[in-house]
Amino acid sequence: FMRDLTKGLVSLKIILALLLLNVFPTLHAQAQTQSSVPKIQFEKYTLPNGLEVILHVDRKLPVVHVNQWFHVGSANERAGRTGFAHLFEHMLFQGSANVAANEHFELVQRAGGTLNGSTWLERTNYYETVPSNQLELALWLEADRMGRLLPGMTQQKLDTQRDVVKNERRWSMDNQPYGTWWEKLPALAFPPEHPFHHSLIGSMDHLEAASLDDVAEFFSTYYTPDNAVLSIAGDFDPAEARALVEKHFGPIPRGKGRPPLPDMSLPPTFGAPKRQVVEDDVMLPRVFVALRSPAFGTEAYYAASVAGAVLGMRRGSRLHQRLVREQQVAQDAGAFTYDLAKGTDLLVVDATARPEVSVEQLEAAVHGQLDLMHAGDVTPAEVERARALIETDIVTSLQSAGDRADKLSMFATYFGDPSLVNVQLAKYEAVTADAVNAFARARLGRDNRAALVYVPSAEA
User: Fold this and answer.
1) CB atoms within 10 A of CB 356
2) Which helix (H) or strand (E) holds 306?
3) Residue 2's pLDDT band (boundaries 50, 70, 90)?
4) Closest CA to 275 of 44, 450, 425
């Protein structure tokens, strides 16, 4: 069976490689002869004010994607003012010197486009997808809020968006079963002084204490062209795009400097097991186990990522097969990485108990699977399956020009090198069972497990 499965996965990868030839319309001409995986073609340059610009032409559809990343996330927030990065995701849609509150949404939608933004520990991003003839509108909107947000900021806007974020916290965390894991697990896994320790969405008290001066200082520090990457992808003329970028972004002055982050490095393991029990208004026990793992983008990360896929990626994974199907102690179980690029990453196991299963049974089963992998018993067939799943996800994540713009922005923001998007498949292809087992022996032991355990409260 395993030989047949391996052959099937190899065939799947061949099919995916063939599909890639139709997924990417703009490829380096020599890619087909130099590699089985085509490369994304792009042009990168930097404006005098420090803004990095990436152009990727894709004429399949008459749309263009404008994708802007700022290298600021919750890790950049200072003590007593957590939640600012996420608050700004909301504030940047509330108008600027030349755009009224909510008009950013209205202008893009009237032009037939879509838009959104998101916040993470290490970055904040904003993006618009518009018809090709509306490229200048999207660029003007992004430039106007980068260069002229503060004149349009008012106390009323701050109060309104602060309430929106506080309600979002109540809905997504405080009043959601297991919802607080988003802040409790990083708090357990990172020491209090570490920038990843505190909540991404911020505390109610900190949000309430935020003033207009605080907001202005945060914006002036981090929302500057020399702390941003602008990617344009889709159906556009590169020369015209260059001229428009220079016209709208060129006059924005460079920032005055950003405070450096503290040392993000940590020992490779916790050194001893950690465990926190949370009584919550839930019906079933649930266990999260975080393990320190090599940072995203490092050479060691790829073996860790494959190990996570062997352990908990989809229904063929160890956790699902053994905890859900065989032992029937969990109704669902999986594993994922945070993909943090600074200091250390987290590999997280997540399992929810079946009815009538105790939290002790669930914990024992989770740790049992980690113990087996820690012993170094991962097979080449398991690695082949995991690599095929990861490579499929990579291909899927690059299907549209907008997806590619986001990945180009990501690698440029984190590592200063958007071409890294073109080597990810090869990085995973090089991972062997020996490398996965070496990672498991080094990082999956009991001395590197932080367990966050949810149990039903007496009221529940």
Assistant:
1) 8
2) helix 299-312
3) very low
4) 450
